[in-house]
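Morning. Coffee machine broken again, so started the prediction first thing and wrote up yesterday's gels while waiting. Chain of 193 residues, entered below exactly as on the submission form.
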Amino acid sequence: MTATTTEILPPRLHHAAAPGATVWLTGLSGAGKSTIATALARILDNGRPVEVLDGDELRENLSPGLGFSRADRDAHVTRVGYLARTLARHGVLAIVPVIAPYRSTREAVRTAHERAGVPYVEIHVSTPVSECARRDVKGLYARQAAGEIAHLTGVDDPYEDPSAPDLRLDTSGTDLAADVEAVLTLLHEKGLR
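Came back before lunch.
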C-alpha cells in the first residue's frame, strides 16, 4: 500500500486570524530593539509562526564578508529585508531588530514589501544616544570612546531617523511591558495580531 502525500506530510500550520508580516525595529545599538523583539516573540508565539531575525546573528551568518561602509550596511539591510519578506509571505511574523541606519534603504525594504503585498510595520526605537551609551550593552560606546573602533552608528557614523514610522518608542522613559504593549496595540490595529 502506498501512502498519499497528505498522509506523509503534516498539515501546514497557519494562524487563521493574522497574516504573516514583518515588524522592523530600527534604532541605535543599545536602544532596546532586541529586548522588545524577544519579549514580543514570546507573547505572539502561541501557535503562530514567529521568527526573530537578530541583526548581529544575521550579519555573522548572512553577511559575513560585509564591513560597515554605507554600501555594505545597505547590502546587509537589503538581504535582511528579503529574508523577512520571504518568511512573512509564507505566514511567519518576522520580527527584525536591526539598526538599519539609512532612511532610503529602510524605505526600499518597505517598498519591496508593499510590492509583494506583504504587511510591513516600522518601529523606531528612538532611545537617545546618551542613554544607549549609558547602557552600553555590548561595550561598543566605551570601545569607540577609547579609539578602539570607529564608525559607530549615532556617534561617528550617521543614523537617519525614520520620517514616518508606524510607532516611535523611547525606552529611556518606559518599561519593557509598556513598550511591548504599545507594539501589540499597533499590530492589533493593523489586523496583524
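The longest strand covers residues 21-26. Going to sketch it on the whiteboard this afternoon.
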